[in-house]
Structures are given as structure tokens and as C-alpha cells.
Fold this sequence. Notes:
Number of domains: 2
CATH topology of the largest domain: 434 Repressor (Amino-terminal Domain)
Structural class: mainly alpha
Amino acid sequence: MKSSFSKLLSKLRRESGYSQRKVAGDLGISQALLSHYENGAREPKLEFIVRVCDYYRVSADYILGRTDRPGGEAELLAEAVNTAVSRLEELKLIETDLISGLKASVTG
Length: 108
């Protein structure tokens, strides 16, 4: 694993600028339980992990330390699709220029 759940949970909270009290309240648990999760003293159930993912808008792979990308593999796929679309748009422009050039040479 790249990083532990407890470290990432604490990191996400701190990066968001939230207190343990706020996050615990938002997630429907006690501040003490959140503290236990953040320091690794307790391991959460799957239901809590899902809530955390939704709360911070990250993938389960990220919060479980399986990837460094908050959006998980979907983020990587989206980047690849965006790159492909950009390249297709570039090729369309090249094609349009070539067709215009051919028309000009035929009619000129």
C-alpha cells in the first residue's frame, strides 16, 4: 500500500481545513471514534469507508492507499479520453486544412 487509511483520512481532513468535531458530526460518528480511525487505533467498517469517499469525493482505491490519484483509475481513464479527444480535434483541423488546400489547387 502507498499510504495507510488512517494517514489519508487525517490528511484529507487537514487539507480540507476541517476540525475533527465537524467531520465527525458530518459523518455521524463521535469525535473520539474519528480520532481512533485517524490514529489507527480502530479500523472502520465498509459503510464508513463509503461515507468518507462520498464526503471527500475520493475513490475507495485512494482512501485505502491503493493509488495516489484521488479519483482512482477513473481519473486516469478520464485523462486518457481527454487526451484522445484533443488529438482528434487537432487531426480534424489538419484534415480541414488539407481539404482546403486540395480544393484551392484543383480550382486554382
